Amino acid sequence: MRGRRPADLVRGQVLAAAGELLLAEGMGGFTIEKVAARAGASRMTIYKWWPSKGSLALDGYASVVRHSLEFPDTGDVEVDIAAQLLAFVHLVRDSRAGRVIRELVGAAQTDAELGLSFRERYSRPRRALAERILRTAVERGELRSDFDPQVVVDQLWGAVYNRLLIPDEPLTDEFARALVANILPGLRTRRDTVSTPAAIQAFVDATNSADTEAFVAAFTEDAFLDDWGRQFHGHDGVASWNKTDNIGVRAHFEIESIEPGGEPDSYTVTMKVRSHRFNGTGPMAIKVRGDKIASLVIS
């Protein structure tokens, strides 16, 4: 005779079945009966934990996307938020989860019960998590304390929802990065600034004057460049990046601040960038060797 499954196991199987059904058929095909059949559970058992179809749908959705939307913890809140925001964009743009969340948001406007479930079981917990990340960064001294985390959450994730639901403009990785670059640097605590090292000034001047030869010469022969995970090595790599992402797209740099990094001869440069490909303000981690740049990391 088959033994009774532990309650936690049944609950997990019901959530998995709900999430799978929701992604496969959307809210139009989502029923308690179908979830029960997939999970091998009774309707009575399901109603004991979830009072409505909407509450089960929202918990099922949250369970299948939770891992994709986790925040990393690198110790740099700007890097962590950028990574999570990009993951969110990929989820809602490139997977069936995007269609489902559009359906849920739309249906919640006229279904009061679903709207309540959406707020209590998905949007408020997600918002609280993002706000906690920001408050932790304040406690660590990364960010100022005189801003409203709720407003910042709306500026970042709300902007993604806007492009998801009102598709006037495309929802791109570049858009997500620009959101972070435009908002987070202004929230950072002010550190002691330093004068501009000659290597960094040469890097800026060469870019602004569209002098490709001088730009490459601003780097050491064994230089390393990382642009959001795309890596380039040596003068050939720097020249390649310059052609596709810098002078090649008519970039113009304006230094907003330079702060000492955590190692000798290293600096965090807050740079305002204008180009045919990217416009925004963000940090560049630069390490110099003599009068040249040895490494440049853009994130």
Overall morphology: elongated
List low-confidence stretches: none
CATH homology group of the largest domain: Tetracycline Repressor, domain 2
Helix count equals 12
Order of SSEs, N→C? Answer: HHHHHHHHHHHEEHEEEE
From the helix content, strand content and strand pairing, which structural class follows? alpha+beta
Q: Share of helix among residues?
A: 40-55%
Mean residue pLDDT: 91
Number of strands: 6
Distance between the termini: 58 Å
SS strand fraction: 15-25%
The CATH class of the largest domain is Mainly Alpha
Q: From the coordinates shown, what is the CATH architecture of the largest domain?
A: Orthogonal Bundle
Q: How many discrete domains?
A: 3
Pfam families: TetR_C_11 (PF16859), TetR_N (PF00440)
Keywords: DNA-binding, Transcription, Transcription regulation
Protein name: AcrR family transcriptional regulator
GO molecular function, one term: DNA-binding transcription factor activity
Question: Would you give an account of this structure?
Answer:
By secondary structure, this protein is α+β, with helices and mostly antiparallel strands. The chain folds into three domains: 7-61, Orthogonal Bundle (Arc Repressor Mutant, subunit A), CATH 1.10.10.60; 77-187, Tetracycline Repressor, domain 2; 198-298, Nuclear Transport Factor 2, Chain: A (Roll). Helix content is 55%, strand content 16%. A six-stranded mixed sheet has the order 2-1-6-5-4-3, sandwiched between helices. It is elongated and about 75 Å long. Residues 8-68 form the HTH tetR-type domain. Residues 31-50 bind DNA. Keywords: DNA-binding, Transcription, Transcription regulation. This is AcrR family transcriptional regulator.
